[in-house]
Structures are given as C-alpha cells and as structure tokens.
C-alpha cells in the first residue's frame, strides 16, 4: 500500500528536490570541467620552469569538484528512484550517501578556505622566480622568458609591481605585451592579476557549495520523514 496524504506530498517534494540535486550535480560537474580546461588557468598552471612545475593546488580542488559533481548525479538519481518506488532500503542508502557527501563537502570547504590564499601565493612565487631568471644574462639558456611572457600575455599584466616595471626598461620590449604603458598606468601588476584570477573562481565555487549544502540538508530531512511515513503505512 502506497503512502497517502501529507506523506505523499513529501514523496513528490523529495523527488523534485532530488531532480534539482541531480541538475546541480551536472552543473557542478560542468563548471569543474570548464575550470579545468579554462584557457587562463591551463596556460599558467601547465607551465614548467626548468625542472619545476607550476603549483597544482588549484587543480586538486578542481578534481575534487569533478568527483563531487559525478557523485551528486548518482545520488540524485538514487533519491529520485527511491522516492518513486517508496523503498525504505533505497531511501536509507540515499540518506547515508547524503551524510557522507555532506561531510566530504564540509571537509573540502575547510580545505579550500585554508588554502585559498596559498594557491595564489604559490603561483606568485613561481612567477617571481621565472621573472628573476628572465632578467638574468643567461635567461636564454632556460625557458624563464617564455614562462614570464605567458603570464604577461594571458593575464595582460607586466612585472611583479609597477615600480619594477617603471625602472626595468631593459625587459619591457622583450617580456611585456603590447600596450605596456597603458597597463602600467592602470596599475595592473601580475601579482594583482593572479589574485583576481583565483579569487573570482573560488568565489564561484563557494556560492555553488553553499547552495548544494542547503539542498542536501532539506533532502536529508525529507528522506527521513518519507522513510518513517512508508514504515507507518506498511503497518496498516
């Protein structure tokens, strides 16, 4: 015997929430793949200075997002099917998956909050090392000049700060993109541009995580209420 009354409304409400959750998983997966293949980040984070690779902390977070998006789509489908079939077993499994996923999201959020400044800091240190090597007389023997030019052309910046940009006239024509004077007037140092690049993407990730967390809390409540309703209806 199927559920009736308010419990039936909860059943379809849970189905709708799970469908939204499934869509959210698809969106997160799509955004993560976009961030993974974004031309700005890939151009910078694929760089290699001698034997040293650019910091990959940002990509660690992206891979976590890809996994979360895929799992969310699976869990959303499981919740939809469990709600329609009124299966206590499927709903219990769905609730357990939600708890685990919620715990992983909290852990990933804490990790991201702790490392949000470190990501940009590591990339800036990598840029500074390449910039210093590019100014040396033997810079042609390494790929430092190519690394620095990639930073400048991708982010439309020039130099660690504008003071060095104004003083070091030797490397302006070699390393800086066209329109350097305009860039210099706008105070667009590469340090500033790196901060803007990663802070903007982390802000987008943070909004998505909050929305998903709210949906998950509602789903956990609804799944338990529906599971209790199914158990009570089977008694009669």
From TrEMBL:
GO terms for cellular component: basolateral plasma membrane. Keywords: Adaptive immunity, Cell membrane, Disulfide bond, Immunity, Lipid-binding, Membrane, Transmembrane, Transmembrane helix. The chain crosses the membrane at residues 12-35, 56-84, 90-114, 202-226. Disulfide bonds join 157-190, 158-176. It is found in: Basolateral cell membrane; Membrane. One of its GO terms (biological process) is regulation of cell population proliferation. It is a multi-pass membrane protein. GO terms for molecular function: lipid binding. CDD domains: CD81_like_LEL. The keyword Cytoplasm does not apply. The keyword DNA damage does not apply. Belongs to the tetraspanin (TM4SF) family. PANTHER family: CD81 ANTIGEN, TETRASPANIN. This is Tetraspanin. The lineage of its organism: Eukaryota, Metazoa, Chordata, Craniata, Vertebrata.
């Amino acid at each position: 015997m199927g559920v009736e009354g308010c419990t039936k409304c909860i059943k379809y409400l849970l189905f709708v929430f799970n469908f939204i959750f499934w869509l959210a998983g698809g969106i997160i997966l799509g955004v993560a793949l976009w961030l993974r293949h974004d031309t700005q980040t890939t151009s910078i984070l694929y760089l290699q200075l001698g034997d040293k690779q650019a910091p990959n902390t940002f990509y660690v977070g992206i891979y976590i997002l890809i996994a979360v998006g895929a799992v969310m789509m699976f869990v959303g489908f499981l919740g939809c099917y469990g709600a329609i079939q009124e299966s206590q077993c499927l709903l219990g499994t769905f609730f357990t998956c939600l708890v685990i996923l919620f715990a992983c999201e909290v852990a990933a959020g804490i990790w991201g909050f702790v490392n949000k400044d470190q990501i940009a800091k590591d990339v800036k240190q990598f840029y500074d090392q390449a910039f210093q090597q590019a100014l040396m007389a033997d810079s042609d023997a390494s790929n430092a000049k190519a690394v620095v030019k990639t930073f400048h052309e991708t982010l439309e910046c020039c130099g660690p700060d504008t003071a060095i940009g104004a003083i070091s006239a030797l490397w302006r024509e070699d390393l800086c993109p066209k329109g350097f004077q305009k860039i210099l007037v706008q105070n667009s140092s590469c340090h500033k541009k790196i901060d803007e690049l990663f802070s903007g993407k982390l802000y987008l990730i943070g909004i998505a995580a909050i929305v998903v967390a709210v949906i998950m809390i509602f789903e956990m409540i609804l799944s338990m209420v529906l599971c209790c309703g199914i158990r009570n209806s089977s008694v009669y």
